[in-house]
Amino acid sequence: MRRAVVAGVTLLLVGGVGYAAADVVDLAPGILTYDGAPVAPPTPTGSASASPAWAALPSAAPATATPSPTATAAGAAPTTAGLTKALAAIAKDPWLGPSVGISVRDGVTGAELYAVSPGVARAPASTLKVLSAFAVTKHVDLDAHMTTRVVTGDTPTEIVLVAGGDTLLGSGASDPHAVEGHAGLATLADEVAQSLTDRGAGAVTLRVDATYAAGPRYPATWKKEDIAAGFTQSVSMLDMVSQRAGGGRAAPAVPETGVAAVLAKALTARGHATTVLPLSGHGTPAPAGATELGAVESATYADHLGFALQHSDNALTENLVRQAMVAAGASPAAPLGPPQFVVRTLADAGVPTAGLRLLDVSGLSPGQTATATALADVVALGATGKDPAFLRAVASFPVAGLTGSLSDRYRGKETGSVAGIPRAKTGTLRGISSLAGTTVDADGHLLVFAVLTDRVPASSGTLGARAALDRFVTALTMCGCH
């Protein structure tokens, strides 16, 4: 029964989400994904590390379990007694350490079926992005696009590159089938060069307007060594894929300058010698009523949010929350504005905020806390269909053994039998490991789970805790538990 339910849900998501599970591999910072490595890789002080090199993925998307109202009729819900019998011993696995918070919910009703200290505040690591994603979906049209524009400036020979939020720009032609590089600077240069020619313009100067959703370059609580090591990058509203951090490579502190340089070179090659003016801060706004000379559109907000969740992208998550703030009429300029905005959004939706201490919206900063209750409540809002917009975000969580930060997990003897079924956001910091997501049990019933551990024993480390978490989710998935 479970496989039939899973297959049906997969068809629904292929049509509705627009983020192909089999087309993504977790190479971005924020998550430790080194299952099977002979030596555990270094974990940054404030985030988890990047994944290994490109992993082999199936050529076609498999049937995977994803929350949807279409799955709600299948199978009876497990009982608390049945779940306790199946999970209690695993919840006490020494590899998880002495601080464990668990909430398992009915994916149909949202009712809690099994719990271990779910209301105790614990460090969430990157599962905090689940809460941030919820805030994004509450305030942003997921089907809308970000527009990067060039408009006329204050003088006849000045043009202005206006940031619109897209940090996944490509340097070449726009690719309508991609998320990264969906909007391309070569295509933008073609349009702008033609407009300049039509206006009889020759050489021009180019300045950048990066004032949209502007805020601090980095949250104050991010550690400099994590930034320098390439585990994250500047939070901007204008960047391109080729400049992004990763693989131990730090990103430029002011990515807008690099984007402007690439565009200027492309315009010069098209017959309009272009000089880039220095950028101070975020620049100044383009003139009111300026004429548009060219524009390119990003993939949808849903695609970008899916990318951030799949790759646990810290800077992109911060970017999207800042854009959500602007959409809601709030300013992202204050240092703690984004995390406070997330907490307010959760409270407005009736999600318990006791125990939440957020310093950023990505989970990278040390000293943050959340609860299994809050995480499970939020995931359940999507899984039960009560919040269709957030369902789309939950549907983009990594899939066990296949995509994103779960691509190299659930492949061993103990957990491989459920590969392709659980779908979860991961979280890993030093001494911390967490999971929050959905699965379908042996009777075809949709379940929601959140597990936080933040005192992982040094003797087994994060890899040991991850293995124990995966065994927990495997037991939950294999269980009929009546």
Automatic annotation (TrEMBL):
GO biological process annotation, one example: peptidoglycan metabolic process
Keyword Metal-binding in annotation: no
Record keywords: Carboxypeptidase, Hydrolase, Protease, Signal
Signal peptide range: 1-22
Coiled coil segments of this chain: none
Family assignment from sequence similarity: Belongs to the peptidase S13 family.
Name recorded for this polypeptide: D-alanyl-D-alanine carboxypeptidase
Record organism: Knoellia locipacati
